[in-house]
Specification:
The complex is a heterotrimer of chains A (77), B (142) and C (667). Chain A has 77 residues and is an alpha+beta fold. Chain A contains two helices and six strands; from the N terminus they run ββαβββαβ. Chain B has 142 residues and is mainly α. Classes of the chains: A alpha+beta (77), B mainly alpha (142), C alpha/beta (667). Chain A: One of its GO terms (molecular function) is transition metal ion binding.
Chain lengths: 77, 142, 667
Amino acid sequence: MTGLPLAFVPAGRKVTVSEVRAGPGMFRRLSSMGLHPSSLVEVVCADRGSLIVAVAGCRYALSRGMAMKVMVQEEGA
Amino acid sequence: MKNSIKLFFSGIMGALYLGCGFLEIGFWIVPGLAAMEVVPADILGGFVLCVIGLVFLAGVPGLRSGTPGAIAYLFVGLLLSLAFGLVAFLAIGAGWLETALFGDLSEWSAAEMAVPMLYLALGSMAGYAAWGREFFRGVARA
Amino acid sequence: MSKKITIALAGNPNVGKSTLFTAITGKRQHTGNWPGVTVEKKSGSVRHHDTDIEVVDLPGTYSLTAYSQDEVIARDFIIDGKPDVVVQVVDATSLERNLYLTTQLSELGVPLVIALNMADMAEQRGDVIDLQKMSKYLEIPVVRTVGSKGEGIGGLLDAVVRESGTSPHHEHSIGYGDRVEPVIADLIEALRQDPALTSRYPPRWLAVRLLEGDEDAEKKIKVSRARDAIYSILSGIDAGEYEALMADRRYEVIAAVLPQVCTTCVGEMTASDLIDRVVTSRYLGIPIFLVLMWGAFELTFTVASPFMAMIEAVQEYLAGVAAGIQPGWLATLIGDGLIGGVGSVLIFLPNIFILLFLLAILEDSGYLARAAFVMDRLMYSIGLPGRSFIPMIVGFGCNVPAIMATRTIEDTSDRLITILINPFISCGARLPVFVLFAGLFFPENPGTVIFGLYVLGIVVAIASAKLFRATILPGKPAPFLMEMPPYRLPTAMTSVRHMWDRGSMYIRKAGGIILIGALVIWALAASPAGVEYGSAASYAGMIGQAVQPLFAPLGFNWEMTVSLIFGFVAKEIVIASLGTLYGVGEDAGALEGALLADPALGSITALAFMVFVLLYLPCIATMAVIRKETGSWKWTAFSIVFGTAVAYLAAFIIARGGALLFGGVIP
């Protein structure tokens, strides 16, 4: 039910965040940037180690390690 | 269709840039090879040309299969090509200015303008005039 | 009946706070298109009708929980600085994320006004935002502004003045639901045991911060007498779960408000995204970056050269005039001291200005953040986060703002390493030394030599970072998380302005510290009375000869030694003092001749000298900023000693190695 890590989503796909498995500090930080459960994420670039995602009209670069902690579900799944 | 023009354009520009880039690097490495009038021996400049050529070429497969977003390679290629055309123009212009102020202008010839970084950018100018606006208005609706 | 109020401009990074600040106060602030341009609070003032308004521009922050130094500055001012009104600058193109901070600010109970900035960009995109509804639902005045064009400033100030009069301020707080609210109520109850604390901070806000596990709030509680009661409440609950519940609730509120006030066209791939795909792609990303850097350096040198020739011609003329001045000592003062010293620095202003202009374009376009992204993996492998790359690029202009820019780096040891390696990045002030020496001693390819020196600086920086990671500052770099601002076409005006803001410093330096340095050196070279100017018997000669044995293994003569000693004030002084000592004022352009004619100087010694200047101790301004940012004399001293040791070693290897290879004569 928790879906797959954001790090595995190919570029151009839209997904919904289902869970953020991060420590309290990182959780709060991601929340304040708009990356929280139920937010809509689009992966813009996933070409290199890190990826660029679009969340709520903003673009963030985040490392693969962090993207592994963000669990997502495919749109409409 | 328009897309096939873009495809054709990307392929030609990519091949020209890459070819000139290789020539410039080759001339630099092997001094025996006499440089052509219109292609100087310049390893770093050659590298720049190669990268621009590769950007153009990287868009070709996507443009052929109609992948949305592939057009971005064409536009980044255009932008880089224009930017470096400007770099070459300013560099040559500065040389001209210095000769005009402190040297003898008769020693300066228009042939110095004949570097690929400059004249290949003319081709991109045409491409930019044709498609630039379209892209920046946000064609990208994939 | 004039009154005085203080307002704070707060908001997420890169939403245009500094641009708005400039529009309100008319005071110019450095702006750029990457998160973390402003790292310090800046204030200015404006008079609106009969109110004097003190405006404070704060660094950007995503929430009131601070992670990095610049965010701490913002949070402390909002919470402890007690501004009369907080103006939250909101990026109209990304309301959802911006409103998260709004929910936190409104809990604080300070009067709040929202400046809906970059509204023109949202409208251009097709968004429709209903200001009145937004203001009604949030219970906060909302004003439409476009900072870059100065629109909406009057309306904003009207709202600010109106809000500053409202008191007491109601706290329009979010209800956190049945599970969280009882705990908040308990916490408030417990907090009331400490009236000193609750009179300073709104109790509900403190309770919420505590539940969210905010370290700063916990620090405040540690010294409070309500401590035990609060600890017993907090220990009874699962903090992580509550935190998640509260963040959810915040977004639920935002999600309930947003659709009613605006219709947006977000969600589609923009041109910006497509460009990102190309410039950050796996194989092309780094080559594109390198090519752009090459272009910047190519322009710096080629375009500057006619302008340098012009300045030189002017100097030649002035030197000719100066030579005719009576009495003779005044002629040498003006000729050798002034024109020879300061003039030899001024020649290089075109280089510095063009380099700064190109760096400004890089910043304003938004590419700088992409460069950090592209270099992330490389940076990670040397033990630094990708974010550290931005200060490295800024360092090409000047190390001082570069070291300030490290404030956005959250992890302290990441930040310390980034600060310590920054002086190795060759700044604009070192450029004159390279241009002069490389042009003289490597006439066939000066460009390659200068480029090589820049690369050497980067290599030494990288090697040092690896060394520090392996020894004194172990650990792993923090994971990369950074906002990518949308690309913007930099306008010539703003880039010229940025160039001027940073470049005018070099002119001021030339008229101030370098002028003084050159005069001091002239005085030392011309005394004691009767001595031949600039000879070994002068004071300058004595100082140089006393220290010279230290530098003898590197092949430096006493003139070079003196210039290095004074060069720590500002690196341009190296050139200024050589110009003074070789007494070339009467005939500008003769410094070149004098240096070439000096038998002690060969191309190997010249190279060793350039490398030494590249790496040796940072200039006074850089030292001061290292001291300020690390807060420790120990690290400052370390930086000085380490830099000089590395410089000596590198120059020694070149001098000795060169002598071995080419059999050069080095005394």
